[in-house]
Design goal:
Distance between the termini: 68 Å
Strand order of the largest sheet: 1-4
Number of strands: 4
Radius of gyration: 25 Å
Number of helices: 18
Structural class: mainly alpha
Strand content: under 5%
Largest sheet: 2 strands, antiparallel
Order of helices and strands: HEHHHHHHHHEHEHEHHHHHHH
Number of domains: 2
Shape: elongated
Helix content: 55-70%
């Protein structure tokens, strides 16, 4: 009797059931908690919203306000001492294997809940059931598992459900997602977010973590043509049935004929700033290759430039000591030194919050004039491209 419940499934059937149940939980976290509640990137029909909320209560015991507040604080204080779960601060091993305890610890901070937990559900069910009796759902789910699959299989499935989110979300996404992987977007330091994999299936698209940090208000995490966001596919399916409404996605660059005046370009450049910087990184690398050819690949001047190659597309993410070494190496290449300096100037344009629109337009116009007068071919071509953003 230990192995038989109402559903007498073979071992592989039980494995499929466990994977299916945990996948519904992953979808609930990424669609409801993350994209809907924490970032408001989509609206959910009350039917869908309450299903996700109830399912998370049954399988994780997580409280919506706590999850949203902790995640919002993570974005606001990313990679600092106040970040609830940064591997850059706490270490990758601690976040990967015990990240859930960092989450629980932060959930007791009343200031975090009050400052970052606004706008989350506060109805009768939330106050009297989901938040007040957060562990009751796990007992109900455990009883259902045992009744359906038997004592031992049901208990194993329940343990799997309980451990799934603490490991994959609190551990892998919060840990590995800020420690290892590729970066498509040069988000401002000290943010160390990474895309773990371009195929976001196992964790519902959360693998595309650098994309999310670049565009946190976007309901879609996939941006490059080769990236797959399974959570986004589910959202599109919900839209078809009238159960979801997408509010915002990451901007897709559009281009028109070259504009002589940058006043019409400014907003497009700021909106697409990460694409602009990524394109500029490619332009810098092209300038680097041309300079190596000019200096002679094996000359002493060229050898001095080679160590800085890996920093060209990530110039904002390096230490002052590395900056000093780069500055010394760039003395051998006026063209590359100009391109690097102008990259920083361009990045500062959208950081000048006190500047008026007229001032920013003038600065962008001046930047384009100097870029086109520099004689550095990749820089000239990039300026022409910059004037085409629509």
């Amino acid at each position: 009797m230990l192995f038989h419940g109402l559903l007498d499934l073979p071992w592989w059937g039980l494995v499929l059931v466990a994977l299916g149940l945990t996948h519904v939980t992953i979808a609930s976290v990424t669609i409801y908690l993350h994209r809907n509640q924490a970032h408001r990137s989509l609206d959910l029909h009350p039917l869908a919203s309450h299903f996700f909320r109830c399912w998370l209560w049954l399988t994780t015991g997580m409280v919506t306000k706590e999850w949203a507040a902790i995640h919002r604080k993570h974005h606001a204080k990313c990679e600092t001492a106040e970040d609830p779960h940064s591997p850059q601060v706490h270490g990758i091993q601690k976040v990967l294997w015990t990240g859930v305890f960092l989450y629980v610890k932060e959930s007791y901070h009343r200031e975090t809940m009050e400052r970052y937990g606004h706008g989350t559900p506060d109805d009768w069910m939330e106050r009297n059931v989901y938040a007040r009796h957060s562990m009751l759902g796990l007992w109900i789910m455990g009883a259902a598992n045992i009744a359906l699959f038997g004592l031992l299989p049901g208990a194993v499935i329940l343990v799997t459900q309980i451990a799934w989110i603490p490991f994959w979300a609190a551990g892998v996404i919060n840990g590995v997602g800020h420690f290892w992987g590729y970066r498509s977007w040069d988000v401002p330091a000290p943010d160390a977010s990474r895309n773990i994999s371009p195929i976001g299936m196992l964790i519902g698209g959360e693998e595309l973590h650098n994309n999310h940090h670049a565009f946190p208000a976007s309901a879609r995490f996939s941006i490059k043509w080769y990236e797959l966001d399974l959570g986004w596919m589910y959202i599109r399916a919900l839209e078809k049935f009238g159960l979801a409404t997408v509010k915002k996605v990451a901007p897709t660059p559009r281009f028109v004929a070259i504009k002589p005046v940058c006043g019409q370009t400014l907003e497009a450049v700021i909106a697409n700033r990460y694409d602009v910087l990524a394109r500029y990184g490619a332009s810098l690398k092209r300038t680097y290759r041309q300079e190596l050819g000019r200096l002679g690949h094996w000359s002493r001047e060229a050898e001095a430039l080679k160590p800085i190659k890996r920093h060209l597309a990530r110039f904002q993410q390096i230490s002052e000591t590395e900056r000093a070494h780069i500055a010394e190496a760039l003395k051998n290449s006026k063209a590359l030194a100009t391109a690097v300096a102008m990259r920083d100037e361009l990045a500062e344009l959208w950081a000048r919050s006190s500047a008026s629109r007229e001032q920013l337009v003038k600065q962008l116009q001046d930047w384009c004039h100097r870029a086109e007068a520099s004689g550095v071919v990749p820089l000239v071509e990039f300026s022409h491209r910059l004037r085409r953003y629509a």
